[in-house]
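subagent[fold] <- orchestrator: predict structure for attached chain, return tokens only, no commentary.
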Amino acid sequence: MIDYKLELKLSPEANEIVIFLRNFAKDILAFANKNGGILFLGFNEDKATGTITDDGLKEDNIVILQKIDLKNLCDQFTKIFDLQINVDIQMFNIAARRFYYVLIEKHNSVLIPKNDYPEYDLKKGDVIYRGAGNNLKANGKTSEFNTFIETKVNEKNQEFMRIWSSLFPEIFDINPREILIINPLLGRVYGYNSKSNSLMSADLDIDNSPEGPINVVLNAISAGEIGKISTDEGKPIYKLIGEIVVKKDRSRESTSMTTIHAEIKDKCDYKISNIQLKQVMHHLKWVNNPAFNIGKPESDDINPEFSEFIWIESTDDLKNTKKVFFSPNAVNELLPTVNNIDSQIEIYGTPLKKKE
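subagent[fold] -> orchestrator:
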């Protein structure tokens, strides 16, 4: 999706972030809630004829756009929506004229303002998305909202099918009831439950050592030597792997984000919020999304390489609910970065405030 804006409406009393949000917050929200898109700044679009002219941006517009810090902008999005919107702002030239584009990434979740922001033309609870050249409100009428939700569900289903069909081209030739999926990084097994007619999961004890059966199989597959993983001719893979032992009780020590945050606040020398602590985890590459949702995590939010400190675990197999858990050891791993001023500046652009 593409839209064109000729210039910014400026306000001498406002800073560059506020000016930018006054001009584009609603457009960015609408694009992110649809398929993403791009705003071209410095172009005059005649809505009646569809004619677009490349006039270029005025110097005072250029000055404002050059001052914008993307991190500060993303922090404002998090403040407004409780979730981050990924945008990129870049300048480009056509002849001697200067222009900007704002690239907006599609968001997997539905973004909704958590309060009224009249100066940005945003109202609490409004679901705004991009229609045919306009920003539309999805929850103005029940029928419109149902259509919007149905579209989002279909997008999720299509994305799910694309992932699986690319991983397993032969998936349609296999009976799903006969498939057993093992995740050695998280120590879980997934399979079809004939009683509930659904996919179920359970914890596993897996030997993850380099010479362990699971890694023998995985290394053989990645090396293209699937035919060599048996020690005896015709020996089935499951006999090589050995017996899978399902855990009856959770033996792994775990704690919550609330507890981790409380421990960090108690032990560190600075004031740090829950959101800022998540940014530290992103800096350390524990998570791929600094705005991950503890109670409703996406499968790719957490980096499995750091599963000794953070992981996603099922809380109710029937309801298919999941939650992010932490190892108590995560506190000692996070503290050095939280207390390091250089790391603070790198993560937040400014040091944290010292405790009084």
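orchestrator: received. Logging for downstream: The longest helix spans residues 142-167. Residues 257-348 form one domain.
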